[in-house]
Amino acid sequence: MQLVPIGQMFAYMSGKPFVSFISPLSSTYEGTLKTDFVLRHAIGSDRCKAVFTRDAPTAVDLTEQGLKKIQFGGIPALDRLKPTGKGLQLEDTDQMVALLPGSRTAEAIENLTLEMRMVLEIAQINPQLKFRAGLVPSVMNAVRDIAANSPNREGWQGWQIEERQTENQAPWIRLSHGSTAEYPQAAEIFCYGDAFSDIVYRTDVVIGMAGLAVNHAMAIGKPIVQIAGKGPQFTYAFAEAQQRLLGSSVQQIGTVPATPEILKEAAACVVKTIDDEAYKQECIENGQARFGPFGASARIANSILKYLDEAVEARERELVAS
Description:
The chain is an alpha/beta fold.
């Protein structure tokens, strides 16, 4: 990946001290992050006080490339990823699988449809597993619209939809599929529009068809099983790049938009993974190594405050000298 240092160029041209947070970029995609003369000149100048990376491998890589002032920052958004105590209709002993279909409404609905089919396959292997979908509000509303207007939409046949809001519990929509000749074992999915943190902290395995949401789940040590959709975002190319970014925590099933055969393979992978304690511990260690520890907001903010104090002191010395 070639880094185009537009932000660093403008910061350098301002003539003021600056720090840089290269949050969208990572060495883990290709093993090393390519840099050019312009970037090296900008961050090598006295005006650049620090360059923060979102993951530890990128900080190591850039330092080994000879770049100075590189610091591991982390992902500030992870500091907000804390369970809120929302009830998820689960017992303490339940094993749970999280469905993360993404946040772009039209694509997320199509992804959710694939994940619903995958749930049916999983239920035939292990009917004891529970399923909870972390949806953004627009996708929750789309599910309501489908329930009201398109009960025969492709992929939704056979699913019954119930919506409820109970005291001291997060509002939910339950998708339930009864026993059929093709799927003798019934299945149900509880969908939530405001319980993402609670779901990813509680889950044992994630079925992921999202970007940032999957990053967050991986960072706290959750195993990810991915299948590709039709896109435009979560295609196989995106999923494969994300697998390189997140490492061993991700198991990508299939290289094309999920077919019935791929869904069966992915379902078997989920069932196997949920009881693989050694692999789940590996995922915890991988998440901590790549994105941990938490506290990026404070680390980066405290560094900026330090450099700001230094800049103020330098300005005061200039005023006194003049």
